[in-house]
Write a structure and sequence with these properties.
mainly alpha, 71% helix
Length: 269
Amino acid sequence: MKKITYYAGNIFLLFVALLCVLPFLYMMIMSLKSTINAYDFRFSFSAVTFEHYEKILSNSTFIRYFLNSVIVAAAGVALTLFTSCTAGYAFAKLKFKGNDRIFLLLILTMLVPSEIILVPLYLIVRGFGWANTFKALILPLPTAFGVFIMRQAILSVPNELIDSAKIDGASDFRILRCVVLPLVKSAMLTLAIFTFIGAWNNFTWPLIITTKDYMRTLPLALTSMQTQYDVDVGLTMACSAVAFLPPFIFYLLLQSKFEAGVALSGMKG
């Protein structure tokens, strides 16, 4: 009976995995063929073409979208890591009045759907004159989620190490940089993955705050391609594949540290 349950469970998990993989397989197959029928599942190696990829990669507007996404995602990761690490260290290891209450208020902001703050955020950004700038795309990326992850990770750092560094005359910033951060690299990599993927795939905010083509990001390119080439399913899928690959590769590069980071930034404290 145990063997039957074991094999049944494995078969079920394999079936679920196949369901998850099928959309990506469909996207890659359709991107390598020229068709106007989204339900044309026929595939022949003789009919494989890279024409769609050549077309979008030779499109200067698409390349601009791609570079904008790279800049926004990379800068967003750097800014999120800086703010989350410094705030996480303050909440985890520094004693000041109202520490727990301020952190609680910060965490409560995670309960608010991001769509609710789009209008006030837009009014604030427009008021500063930041519309159609990288500042408008990058500065809203850090969230309370990053602070929560880093605080939970930094709580696991022994206080004895920090006390020893203070006795040696190290400042809080040097303690954070030389003592704490090397011990929580896994959590930082986990946060970097979440931030990069979120910034790369962000569609609604760039659509609202950018009106010029030269400032739009890659997720918006798919809409542009559908408008310009609405009969070519293969071209749309090629655009989707190019948009999918960078965060997927980024995750693969950091995947070895991802599980450790999730475990380290769990529910301690």
